[in-house]
Amino acid sequence: MKELSFANRQKLKFFIPFLKPHYKIIDLGCGSMWLTNYLRNLGYDCVGFDESSPADIVGNVKTYNFKEDSFDAVFALEIIEHIDCTKEIKRILKPEGILMVSTPVPYMDSLLQIGEHLSIFQKRTSPHSNLIYLEEIPLKLIKKKNLFGIVQCGVFQKN
């Protein structure tokens, strides 16, 4: 597996302690499937979902027909700024399930754009049309962390 970036290692260090061995996990917006494959290598039952290959399931998160209460954990790393899918995430999470999110701090998005232009950050795949603060997500916020003052990470629980 390709070596993980410093930022991704920091995210994993924050999120992994919240996972339990029996969890059924979905990685929404899985992209290259780095996280999906990482979790599988740790022994987790994880499926990758994205609008394009190489995802295990290809589709639109808002229109795909997921079964209600079907996942113990949902990873949504760098996706909710592209599409407002928090209601669908809440619907597919099992009771007491957890959501793990990373998304840009809204007021720092212009700095990210400069970093993308300078090839410091990965270029976005679509516009950031849904920039939100973690407190706006309709689930119980358990823990949050700010990475580099630019990215907000949060762990949420469905009640």
UniProtKB/TrEMBL annotation:
GO MF assignments: S-adenosylmethionine-dependent methyltransferase activity
* Gene3D superfamilies in alphabetical order: Vaccinia Virus protein VP39
- UniProt-listed InterPro entries: Methyltransf_11, SAM-dependent_MTases_sf
Q: Specify the Methyltransferase type domain's residue ranges.
A: 27-100
Top-level lineage group: Bacteria
Please name one Pfam family that this protein belongs to.
Methyltransf_11
Q: What is this protein called?
A: Methyltransferase type 11 domain-containing protein
